[in-house]
Amino acid sequence: MPSSDSANVIIIHPDLGIGGAERLIIDVALALQNNGHRVTIYTSHCDKSHCFDEARDGTLDVQVRGNTIFPAHIFGRFHILMASLRQLHLTVSLLSELKQTRDSAKSTESGDPDDIFIVDQLPACVPILKSFARPRKSRRQRILFYCHFPDQLLARRNEGGSLLRLAKLLYRYPFDWFEGWAMSASDRVVANSNFSRGVVHDVFGTDKLGDVQVVYPCVDTTTKTDRNVKEEVDVLWGGRKLLLSINRFERKKDMGLAIRAYNGLRPEKRAGTRLIVAGGYDNRVQENVQYHQELDDLAKGLGLKTATAKTVVSALSIPDEIDVLFLLSVPTAFKNTLLAQSKLLLYTPVNEHFGIVPVEAMFAGLPVLASNTGGPLETIVEGETGWLRDAQAVDEWTAVIEKVLYQMSENEREIMSQAGKARVQQHFSLAAMGGRLEEEISKMLSANRRTFHGWQQVLVVLVVLGSMLAVLLAILLSRL
């Protein structure tokens, strides 16, 4: 579909907070909106004080639905069940609104655009859309599912005793089946990297989902986020040499690796430096709160002095003797300043599905040190835009840190900086992502809709989910 053919694009995302998946969906919306499509994001949660700028400043049309009946969790558990029910509630509201809009609109056949639904992370709504969303006369309607990673592989099943593990296995089984079945209702599935694509094929097979293609996440290269920002702001913290680690405060991100690698520097090498550990943090999420405390304890246990800041003002006023600064939920503008003034990004997750932060760093001209697994293998070029090292070899990480801080010449840094920017412009720009999305949408619209005989199964699944909810409510009432 050429970009001149405007479509009505509806994006459905569970929780529009601050994180890699949220940044991706914001960029998907921006790319398609820049190409002339009418884009609306529907989500079950969007806190205006804890979301990306484009979701709150009017750049994008964000509608919150499906958040009035079901909570996000019950006693800190049943997240996937509640997320599925919230998305189904959202979908019912969305379909009702679409019907009302179409009934009241006096549109001509030639003036109606095609409808494109883009769903990511959670596919619970896809069979409902496929079965009950009706295209207008002579107009096409398609569903694209953007798979970050199979949810069933992200679930934690080995915690607790044998009975608890058995309960988790029984609880997760229907959701594991449902995930693949629901995704198969989409007309096309794309993944965020070749790594994720391979995992999707291994888990679901090619027969169920068809030919899964890759649409890389991106950064907006039209904005000024390069290292020339240095000249426009005061030098941070007296010109200290900054090392930066950005991720959500989740244990699987292994941000402790950055702390251990930094501690591997001799004390005299750490003089005049600081490690910034920053990223997505939501005090509603127990793991975020706990992991931040664990990281702080780790750093202090190694003899490093720490501080935590929740605002830019408090971050800029910390004492000089602080070695490790934790920044919770960094605003975009300040993150760009940190990228511009740091010497090295430490990207610690193992088998990360894609990893947008290394791409952001390269666009800012900042070299990246990352685990030699997952998405970074596709984004970072060893020795040209950064380095790839075994996450278990902490001493190798420390060696790269020392090399960047004390052994590289300014000319070598500049060559690596320019190589990173060029790679992002070519492969991971907003325009590149928009082009790939247009290709996938065009393929969907030019092909027949994927067959899905799921109407009766939808009702069965709803009955099963309703039964499970009834059981959970009974348990809840018995505790009152």
Automatic annotation (TrEMBL):
UniProt pathway: Protein modification; protein glycosylation
Molecular function terms, GO-annotated: GDP-Man:Man(1)GlcNAc(2)-PP-Dol alpha-1,3-mannosyltransferase activity; GDP-Man:Man(2)GlcNAc(2)-PP-Dol alpha-1,6-mannosyltransferase activity
Protein location: Endoplasmic reticulum membrane
Domain of life where this protein originates: Eukaryota
Main location: endoplasmic reticulum
EC number(s) given by UniProt: 2.4.1.132, 2.4.1.257
Function in brief: Mannosylates Man(2)GlcNAc(2)-dolichol diphosphate and Man(1)GlcNAc(2)-dolichol diphosphate to form Man(3)GlcNAc(2)-dolichol diphosphate.
Family recorded in the similarity comment: Belongs to the glycosyltransferase group 1 family.
Protein known as: Alpha-1,3/1,6-mannosyltransferase ALG2
Species classification: Eukaryota, Fungi, Dikarya, Ascomycota, Pezizomycotina
